[in-house]
Specification:
Keywords: CBS domain, Repeat. This is CBS domain-containing protein. InterPro entries: AMPK_gamma/SDS23_families, CBS_dom_sf. 38% of the residues lie in helices and 14% in strands. By secondary structure, the protein is of the alpha/beta class. β11, α15 (350-359) and β12 (364-368) form a beta-alpha-beta unit. The chain is flat. α8 (173-181) packs across α16 (380-394).
Length: 395
């Protein structure tokens, strides 16, 4: 059984995964914002090719330069709009090229991998810094042919799913951890050991900010947590964990949250992005502070989004919560967590922490002491390191 796991191909982890929706790197940030709302996707992949301008590009065998170079989500746009010049002129900001959101200093965050590659190869790439692995979807030839014939009669949009005559999906850290959990018995006794005995608790460079600090001070931490697949801890003066600002939660909001980040404290921002929607007094506080700072253009954007969201609430029977328009109650119909942090203790077992993270659809769990003080964080990357070492011992 251990030998079978070592030789497992990543294509087995791709079964049932949907084809990637895409945007061309030549698109604008406004295009990405519109697509995220219209398609109700958490992420969109970004490709070097542009099918909008060449209706046959999707089907050309010579389009070898069609490569996925990154991914875009609502948090990327929110962080970008928090810049002072963007707050002054959000319309101009949304006309900026999408390429400004792709971190050039981290080119390996999204990496292509062939479907016959092994599970071990996938784990190694994740440990080297890849956040998503782009895998060609293997399908029956007649199915692919029928799909291509159908699409040939319709010009592919910027959200086409065909590249180099193939469709792709991607694997994330969560997919690998979930798959390894199916074989957890092979790794005994490691999974039942306390995490403080496995060198898996990260204690350095923890992304944290105090409750009363300006939320804007957390902006670089939010951007980093998005790259690291973690979160920003909110702590009190004694270092006790109060809550978090999670990219997972921010991703279910709309672009006007940028104004809240720019004007509120970290603690108030937690309440603003909570899944029940922001209290009216906080919304009014944000609007008042925008006026004080002569940011009327962004205030107009908030008012426009509020009208759109209210219309969507009427259509979908929502409760009028703040969030992304076109979603049930102003929020995505997908799972949306509240701002309470998911925590474990130093003596929690590795398998318990794995299950806890997977159950809450996060790739990390905060580690706290008995008094609630923040002790560190356990991430999927840390877990993968542990399992990779055990896999080496099986060879």
């Amino acid at each position: 059984m251990a030998v079978s796991l070592l030789t497992q191909e990543v294509s087995d982890l791709c079964l049932g995964k949907p084809a990637l929706r895409c945007l061309s790197v030549s698109a604008t940030i406004g295009d990405a914002l519109s697509a995220l709302k219209r398609l109700r996707e958490t992420y969109l992949s970004v490709w070097t090719c542009n099918h909008d301008h060449d209706p046959d590009a999707s089907f050309s065998s010579k389009s070898d330069d069609c490569v996925c170079i990154g991914k875009i989500c609502m948090v990327d746009i929110i962080c970008f709009l928090c810049r002072p010049d963007c707050l002054k002129s959000p319309t101009t900001a949304l006309n900026s090229p999408l390429s400004v959101l792709i971190p050039r200093s981290l080119p390996g965050l999204v990496t292509h991998l062939e479907p016959h590659a092994s599970l071990v190869e996938a784990i190694d790439l994740m440990l080297e810094g890849a956040q998503n692995l782009v895998i060609p979807i293997q399908s029956r030839r007649n199915t692919t042919s029928s799909r291509k014939k159908l699409l040939l009669h319709n010009k592919p949009s910027s959200n086409s799913t065909l590249h180099n005559n193939r469709e792709y999906c991607w694997l994330a850290q969560e997919d690998l951890i979930r798959y390894l959990l199916n074989f957890i018995g092979l790794f005994n006794p490691t999974p039942i050991n306390p995490i403080n005995t496995l060198n898996v608790i990260e204690t350095e460079n923890i992304l944290a900010i105090q409750y009363d600090s300006p939320a804007l001070a957390a902006l670089p931490l939010i951007s980093q947590s998005l790259i690291n697949h973690t979160s920003v801890a909110i702590v009190d003066a004694d270092g006790k964990l109060i809550g978090e600002i999670s990219p997972f939660t921010l991703n279910s909001c709309d672009e006007t949250v940028s104004a809240a980040i720019a004007t509120l404290s970290a603690g108030d921002l937690m309440a603003y992005i909570d899944c029940g929607g922001p209290p009216e007094e906080l919304v009014q506080t944000v609007k008042d502070r925008l006026e004080e700072r002569n940011l009327g253009a962004f205030l107009e954007l908030m008012e426009e989004e509020s009208i759109i969201t209210s219309s969507s609430d009427d259509e979908f029977g929502g409760s009028g919560c703040h969030g992304r328009s076109g979603r049930l109650g102003g929020y995505s119909a997908r799972l949306v967590r509240r701002s309470e942090a998911i925590v474990c203790y130093p003596w929690s077992s590795l398998v318990a922490v794995m299950i806890q993270a997977l159950a809450h659809r996060v790739s990390y769990v905060w580690v706290v002491e008995e008094d609630g003080s923040l002790a560190g964080i356990v991430t999927f990357v840390g877990m993968l390191k542990v399992f990779r070492e055990r896999l080496k011992s099986m060879i």
